[in-house]
Amino acid sequence: MAAHAQNRTAAIIGGGVIGGGWAARFLLMGWDVRVFDPDPEAGRKVGEVLDNARRSLPGLSDVALPEEGTLTFHDTISDCVAGAEWIQESVPERLELKRKVYQTIQEHCAPDAIIGSSTSGFKPSELQGCATRPGQIVVTHPFNPVYLLPLIELVPSDINAPEDVERAKGVLTAIGCYPLHVRKEIDAHIADRFLEAVWREALWLIKDGIATTEEIDNAIRYGFGLRWAQMGLFETYRIAGGEAGMRHFIAQFGPCLSWPWTKLMDVPELTDELTNQIADQSDAQSGMHTIRELERIRDNNLVTMMRGLKAQKWGAGALLNDQDRRIDQLPETLDDVADLSAPIVTVARAVPLDWTDYNGHMNEARYLQAFGDATDKFMAMVGCDADYIATGGSYFTAETHIRHIDEVHAGARIRVETQVLLGAGKKMHLFHRMFEGDRLLATGEHMLIHVSLETRKASEPGPTVAAPLSRVAEAQAALPRPEGAGAAVGVR
Ligand SMILES: NC(=O)c1ccc[n+]([C@@H]2O[C@H](COP(=O)([O-])OP(=O)(O)OC[C@H]3O[C@@H](n4cnc5c(N)ncnc54)[C@H](O)[C@@H]3O)[C@@H](O)[C@H]2O)c1
């Protein structure tokens, strides 16, 4: 690919797990990236991280990313850092090595380039120790995978010029990161301190035979991990304090700090001063929302995240899927359907919080989702289930016509009833009606064609699907043709 004359340039020193992640983020945000890593496998390793980034990051955005920059590998640091505006050091976590690398970098880089270190533990003043221009080096500590997680702990020492810190923030923001400016340098910065505390407790829980690794992970991912992911620690506890807020929460749970609840027994005394400090900061952070509002925001976030996990069949989402299977009352097969001559209920559910839009009602795309789910359910009932599809046959939708007849809001219980207009040969012509109670909300008319998944072309369904489908089609043949079936979008 031709070099983009106008592109900004980043040099990546050390292209392992973390350096590869930085390289990918800069590249996908349109920067040219130059990599130095003495490992002969570096090209392959960076390439693998880049493949992962290319499949995940662009679609996280709802707008097109800039055109990808150019990636080059260089044999020397001097060649690599030439012309770079940002230099990201991600070599192994050894102070002497890092210091030696900065010396070489600084002999060859632009004096106003920013040198960020990915160090997990060292303070910037330690890194700056023997440097020619110490003020050029800051800690920019990322989290793996660097191409997806936005947090970068930006830790300057006293000698870094405030304008350079601002410039660093500007670059990090431009590549989609959240620079968390750590106001005082400290070993392991901020986030790794929490991870370290949790890690230490976890090691004790295993050593003392209290929990297994899986039980510990479940304790996180089915509960507080989901809360932390969207509100962190203090906003979550503010809600736990209820109307009385943070002061009440601290008064209630403060005494536990001196109980032997944890191996981490070195705790600060909860003086009035500390309590007030926390409560005031919490007011500044979240005081613009009432507790009721915060609860609703939290619930919306949790529903959105957990529904996302359902689609991945993972963690709390896998649990939800299991529970859905336990409580699902819809028939599994045609033999369980009481009356085949009437339309068959194929969806029965509540409208989830994340299906509504700026108009305060269910978004048009979700009607198709509900009708698509109805079609999937009907296919499974006539034998076109996962096992059949694994043998190489399936249905593809060829045409859809949805009529939006009435509004529906989050929480409403909706039902889709499915009528077969044609079920013969390669064709399956379905007419879905969506209701809330007796109120007709929408109709969806769909023409599906049976295909061979090998040739991707139309093919006759196998007998295990053809026979049940024609059984429904015959049973429903006497039903009146639904109002609106076969209609086109027209001017009334
Ligand atoms: N792994 C993590 O989760 C994580 C998270 C945040 C920060 N960090 C920090 O990132 C840094 C790198 O960690 P990593 O996990 O990517 O390690 P890694 O071992 O995966 O990668 C280090 C890379 O540096 C290369 N290297 C060795 N000597 C070099 C030199 N003189 N010049 C250039 N490259 C050299 C190695 O060949 C290797 O590819 C460390 O400081 C670490 O503390 C790691």
Description:
It is a single chain. By secondary structure, this protein is α/β, with parallel strands linked by helices. It is 42% helix and 18% strand. Helix 1 (17-28) crosses helix 2, helix 8 (213-231) packs across helix 12 and helix 10 packs across helix 11 (272-286). The mean pLDDT is 95. Nicotinamide-adenine-dinucleotide (NAD) binds at residues 13-19, 36-39, 42, 90-93, 97, 101, 118-120, 141-142, 144.
Short descriptors:
Rossmann fold; binds nicotinamide-adenine-dinucleotide; 3 domains; 492 residues; N-(1-d-carboxylethyl)-l-norvaline Dehydrogenase, domain 2; alpha/beta; five-stranded antiparallel sheet; 13 strands; Thiol Ester Dehydrase, Chain A
Give a nutshell description of this structure:
By secondary structure, the protein is α/β, with parallel strands linked by helices. The chain folds into 3 domains: 9-181, NAD(P)-binding Rossmann-like Domain (Rossmann fold, 3-Layer(aba) Sandwich); 191-296, N-(1-d-carboxylethyl)-l-norvaline Dehydrogenase, domain 2 (Orthogonal Bundle); 329-475, Hotdog Thioesterase (Thiol Ester Dehydrase, Chain A, Roll), CATH 3.10.129. The protein has helices at 17-28, 42-60, 77-81, 95-108, 124-128, 162-174, 191-207, 213-231, 234-240, 245-253, 272-286, 291-312, 316-327, 364-381, 386-390, 463-475, and strands at residues 9-13, 32-36, 71-73, 86-89, 114-117, 137-141, 151-155, 178-181, 344-350, 393-404, 413-424, 427-436, 439-452.
